[in-house]
Amino acid sequence: MPLVSEITSITQRLIIPKVVDNIYKASPFFYRLKKKGIVEQGGREIVVPIISGQEGDVTYFSEGQAPIIPHTVKQTISSATFRWKGYAFSMIIPEYDLRVNLGTYGIVNLMKAKTQNLALRIATELGNDMINSTGTGQDANKIEGLEAIVNTTTYGGGSNC
Description:
Elements: H1 4-10, H2 28-35, E1 46-51, E2 77-82, H3 95-100, H4 110-132, H5 146-150, E3 154-155, E4 158-159
Antiparallel strand pairs: 1-2, 3-4
Helix pairs in contact: 2-4
């Protein structure tokens, strides 16, 4: 019969000093955009100049014919305008838990682990909204996702066609 209490009394457990994500598996779409550095800062609103029409007219001719080239002025550039959206999350850590987790007894820093967990939660929410949010109704305060872009002919005040 093994002496379980003796061994557990004198041997520490091996605790891997890193918290591993087993819940969120955060959004690959969000991380791809973040990795590419597609992040904007500042400004009252976001204005994106867009090509909204085709430039130039096409004409065809064959040998021996002089082409008649149309010369119509076209409005081919407009802009899409978006307002900023914000996300707020809370994280509560009791002071007792912080004290117990101090020094060598805190194999994994509680504050860092909770912050990492919150960052993954934010990434998951943003990633889901980047795909599923319509930006209207219950989603009015969320970012507008692909759902909003694909299912409309106008987006941000500009034409999607």
